[in-house]
Amino acid sequence: MEEPPLLEREPETNIFGESMAVFHAAADLIGLAPRVRLELEQPDYEHIFYVTAQLQDRLVPLRGEAAAAYERLPPSVIPNRAAITPLFNGKLILRPEALRSGSIHIQDGVIRLGDQGLYRIEPGEFARFKAYRVQHNQARGPYKGGLRFHKAVSLDLFNALAAEMTWKTAIADVPFGGAKGGIRMDPREHSKEELESISLRYMYRLKQLVGPNVDIPAPDVGTNPQVMAWLLRQYSDGERERHNHRGVVTGKDVRIGGSEGRAKATGQGLAYCVEEWYAQRGLTPAGARFIVQGFGNVGSAAAEILCKMGARCVAVQDADGAVYDPNGIDVGALITHVHANPQNLRRSVAGYGGAQPIAPDDFWSVDADICIPAALGDAVTGDVAERLEVKLVAEGANRPTTTEGDKVLAERGISVIPDIIGNAGGVTVSYYEWIQNKRMEHWTEGEVNARLERAIKSNYRLICDIAEDRPRRSADHDSTGFVLGKRLPMRLAAMVLALKRIEAHYMLEGFSQ
Ligand code: NAD
Predict the structure, then answer these.
(1) What is the mean pLDDT of residues 176-193?
(2) Which of 50, 170, 315, 365 could form a disulfide with 501 if both were Cys (CB 3.0 to 4.6 A apart)?
(3) pLDDT over 90, % of the chain
(4) H-type helices in 221-322, by residue range?
(5) Atom 23 (ligand 1): residue with closest C-alpha?
(6) From the CA of 375, how far away is ligand 1's center (Å)?
């Protein structure tokens, strides 16, 4: 039998197994009922499917010997520049209207674009992408979790991330379960039209499996409110009572039923946790210096909000570079450079003139107070944890710290705000969006943030109480049912809170046969 192409094969990793270590440790500690452990140990459903799409024509740079034959090819003049979109990898998307005006010279499918050089026209093909949706658990409510469009995704990774959503929704105390999914591809290699067509096809396949009361996707790495809008349309077009389906995805643009504050909610929630960490030490984040890895949705919002709290961003690293300024980077200007600059095809901090470029690896040893990993998983390895010069690691990304990294952080006395509370602001405001959609309401940003602050800080305090073995009860706080009679690391304490809340559903409702 023919081997499946490399991109479609599942890599042999065991991220899910590793990620469940904390689950098992917490389950042992609280004596989780054996049947509940079995229910939570594996996802409810693992969906793998394929989506196909028609790609557009591309212009691929032609260099070296192959180019020599076209030395005499005159340059073409294409007045309609909007019909050509540059991609980060040097290729260009070529729309048919580009060739309908101007002065065009094509020889054997090769074209010279002014001073940009020679390109071979690659006819648009049909492409197939591997797609996933893992639904981990729904004991507390509909499945809920983001969609990731990225090259390095796998069933193993989505199993880990979906389980993490189950813990996170329980910790945030929102009435959802856990799910995660996405497509194996790099969205930067595609035009807007192609992304729309791939997203629509994904929802076409997924429609049977999701719904506002069944499973509710949201943005994650490589997806955004625009992708959510396409998914909403594909799900709801032609349905009776279309407006009732608005809550099928969260993270929508506010003009089409998204919530105020959702775009920044994950960073906002992380900043509230950091603020609470300082408050518990009788301090505020004002004057604190932080470094942030990943300057996408989460990293840039967290940086902006922490700066508003008076903190100073001294270094930023992303997939393509790192910048440093001990006096503080102008985060607003860096956001403009990364997110509002059409020339910056990689959407990277690299090339930002307002700070000093540094080697990406040197980022980890920058002297600061807080490190915010807000990119992908496994960034803070044992080696990185040895080099960090900070007091606090506030996790914006999902699973940014490896087991070894965790051990080293603990040995070095560096505090951790674990991801399942640190980045729970996103799913908390997704819940507010879902309620607003159901009630046909629109809350102000102030209202959203006030609720978010209350929710995140109160759940964070519960986790701190569990970690420090501090049972406390007041009118609006009660940790007495969660503390275990001994001190625990924060990550384990967070998992204890999640499992106790999930277990209650199984213990009180029992099991259908
Ligand atoms: P994004 O796609 O907007 O940004 C990702 C950032 O990470 C980019 O700046 C990219 O350059 C950087 N990056 C990618 N690979 C890297 C590498 N190898 N080294 C350094 N930097 C790298 O994604 P996002 O939505 O900001 O999500 C970031 C993290 O936060 C992810 O782990 C995601 O699962 C998690 N998260 C996101 C949300 C949300 O609401 N968006 C909610 C909870 C958790």
Answers:
(1) 97
(2) 170
(3) 92
(4) 225-236, 265-279, 297-308
(5) 221
(6) 4
Give dist(CA 420, CA 502) in Å, integer.
15
**Pairing mode, if any, of strands 92-94 and 106-107?**
unpaired
The residue with tokens 């990277």 is: 348
| Best mutation site among 144, 195, 221, 291 for ligand 1 pocket (most ligand atoms within 8 Å of CB) | 221
pLDDT digits (tens, 9 = 90+) for 206-261: 999 999 999 999 999 999 999 999 999 999 999 999 999 999 999 999 999 999 99
395 ligand 1 Cβ < 6 A:
no
- Nearest atom (ligand 1) to Cα of 298: 26
The pTM assigned to this predicted structure is 0.94
C-beta atoms surrounding 452 within 10 Å: 22
Evaluate if residue 324 carries a pLDDT over 70.
Answer: yes
What is the 3-state secondary structure of 435-477?
HHHHHCCCCCHHHHHHHHHHHHHHHHHHHHHHHHCCCCEECCE
Residues 270, 303: Cα–Cα separation, whole Å: 10
Ligand 1 centre distance from Cα of residue 427 (Å): 15
Sheet of 45-54, strand order = 45-54, 126-137, 178-184, 143-150, 215-219
- In this structure, are residues 231 and 251 in contact, taking their beta carbons and an 8 Å threshold? no
Ligand 1 pocket check for 294: Cβ under 6 Å: yes
User: Residue 292: which of 336, 325, 251 has the closest Cα?
Assistant: 325
Distance 311 CA to ligand 1 centre (A): 21
Give the number of the atom of ligand 1 that is nearest the alpha carbon of residue 430: 40
Q: What spacing in Å lies between the alpha carbon of 200 and ligand 1's midpoint?
A: 23
Could you give all domains of the chain from N- to C-terminal order, each with its CATH number? 43-53+131-256 (3.40.50.10860), 56-124 (no CATH), 264-417 (3.40.50.720)
Q: Could you read off the pLDDT of 423-464 as tens digits, one per residue?
A: 999 999 999 999 999 999 999 999 999 999 999 999 999 999
Q: Map residue 132 onto helix, strand or coil.
A: strand
Question: Residue 2: helix, strand or coil by DSSP?
Answer: coil
pLDDT greater than 70 at residue 12: no
- The CA distance from 500 to 482, in Å, is 7
Pocket test for ligand 1, best of 298, 320, 341, 362 (most atoms within 8 A of CB): 298
Residue 158 CA from chain centroid, whole number? 12
∠ CA 114-117-120, rounded to 5°: 115
Question: For residues 233 and 160, is the Cβ–Cβ distance under 8 A?
Answer: no
Structure tokens at 69: 């034959």
Residue 5 has pLDDT above 70, yes or no: no
Q: Give residue 4's pLDDT.
A: 56
Give pLDDT, residue 1.
Answer: 47
CA of 441 relative to ligand 1 center, distance in Å:
30
Per-chain mean pLDDT for the chain: 95
